[in-house]
Amino acid sequence: MDGDRIRSIDLKPALADLGLADPRPVLVLVLVGGASKMAPGVGVDLTRLFEGLAPHLDRLGGAVIDGGTAFGVMAAMGEARRRARAGFPLIGVAALGTVALASLPAQARRVMLEPSPGGEPGARLDPNHSHFLLVPGAHWGDESPWISAAAAALAGDRPSLTLVAAGGEITRLDVVAGLDAGRPTIVLAGTGGVSDLLAAWWRTGDAVPGLALDAAQRDLIQVLELAEAAEQLPAILQDVLGG
Known about the structure:
With about 240 residues, the protein is of the alpha/beta class. The chain has a single domain (about 5-240), classed as Rossmann fold, CATH 3.40.50. It is built from nine helices and eight strands. Strands 4-5-3-2-1-6-7-8 form an eight-stranded parallel β-sheet, sandwiched between helices. Helix 3 packs across helix 4. The protein is globular, with a radius of gyration of 16 Å.
């Protein structure tokens, strides 16, 4: 299903079924890239960063949406939320044909937008996510437009922000979906993968393979070094999501 058709679907009833009926500021974590695309040692640093952000997300009444699997930066956010004992909704949006439904956490609320296709087991879902929106699709990347659409539906007239860390081929789709929606985007340089390629393009104009980006999209992007993000991101969250 193409992005335009997905954006036309009313996801508010599904979000209401998840107990998320009220609009809230949304941090969209474009973190579909797995651990193999993460720079060495970054997982620990990201978990520490996300743990520090958790109280700010709680205070802002925010929510986080990502791909929901138990790998890479998505697992780092789940672990950070657990360690911080945070209450913000952490919503995994995953294509049904790519994940192992047997790994759905028992305590998590979940909605399936179509019946399970069955078949071979897929990727494990993260045990520390609080909600799951399981969408149509049998291939990695089918969830990308749904992530952006869910963020728009959940935010309503409230602000949203994309945070890009590490990432592989699918992250390119997620970045474009967010930029096409006009969503401000923070790129964490030094995390590896697509994030470092985006940071290099933003700074020097070096092309990012598989991405055709223009000046208008560049204006939506801000690059932060991972080592400095713990000091800078809380203020950015307040400025963008607290508005």
